[in-house]
Design brief:
Blueprint (H helix, E strand, L loop, with lengths): L6 H8 L12 E7 L4 H4 L6 H10 L5 E2 L5 E4 L3 E4 L5 H12 L7 E6 L3 E6 L4 E4 L7 H8 L6 E10 L2 E5 L4 H7 L8 E6 L3 H29 L1
Parallel strand pairs: 6-10
Antiparallel strand pairs: 1-2, 1-5, 3-4, 6-7, 8-9, 8-10
Length: 223
């Protein structure tokens, strides 16, 4: 168990890899452009009218990294991609597509970057649209910090390590608002309200007892 006083672990969490490694089970999105990506830039808008219809018809596919570490891509076939960063994978694919196109421009994205929020909330999966996403951003997106949540005892689980964060103080926010990585699990401790929980859990029994007492009282009054 790590605490927010463990500076080494804070540094480790705060240095989230902006170019994370591709692993088995990842879904990838691939875009290939010719002429070093001229179509992407197109500063004079010369290609807009000629390509707008074809762009709408172009399917957006996702490609699974299989258990053998390979992914099957159009034209180039099976490619071993597990263990590579996005940057190195793009360089490798650029060489593969050079067999078919002149000066190809490759853009590769991992689609399943996400974190899980559990505890006081109902349980949410939050996609990481930005590689530099902080804990505070995910909490804001998930709307998980409510009156039923204890923001002073947040747990970020990463693999076999746990980091504690307290966002109720300035010092705690500065050290605890770390960069998140895909696969992180955020646990928000709920605020315990014993009386409310007792009434919720035992409400039906109390209602039955009250009804029986009322019935007995009515019968006694009749007699």
């Amino acid at each position: 168990m790590k605490s927010d006083n463990d500076s080494d672990f804070v540094q480790k969490l705060s240095s989230s890899d902006s170019n994370r490694i591709i692993t088995v089970g990842d879904y990838l999105e691939l875009d290939v452009f010719t002429k070093n990506g001229e179509k992407v830039i197109d500063p004079d808008f010369e290609l807009v009218n000629t390509n707008i219809n074809s762009e709408k018809l172009r399917p957006k596919l996702k490609y699974l990294v299989r258990n053998d570490g390979q992914v099957k891509l159009p034209m180039v076939g099976d490619v071993l991609i597990e263990g590579k960063s996005i940057h190195s994978a793009e360089q490798m694919l650029q060489k593969e597509f050079e067999k078919y196109y002149h000066n190809p421009f490759i853009n590769l994205r991992i689609l399943n970057n996400r974190v899980i929020v559990l505890g006081a909330s109902d349980g949410l999966v939050v996609p990481l649209e930005n590689e530099k996403t902080t804990l505070a951003e995910v909490l804001a997106l998930s709307k998980s910090i409510t009156n039923n949540a204890r923001a002073s005892n947040l747990k970020i689980v990463r693999g076999d390590e746990v980091f504690l964060a307290d966002l109720t103080t300035i010092e705690g926010f500065q050290s605890g608002n770390i960069l998140l990585e895909p696969g992180d699990v955020i646990y928000i401790e709920p605020v315990r309200r014993p009386f409310t929980e007792f009434m919720r859990d035992n409400g039906p029994i109390l209602s039955l007892v009250t009804s029986l007492i009322s019935l007995v009282a009515v019968l006694i009054s009749i007699n």
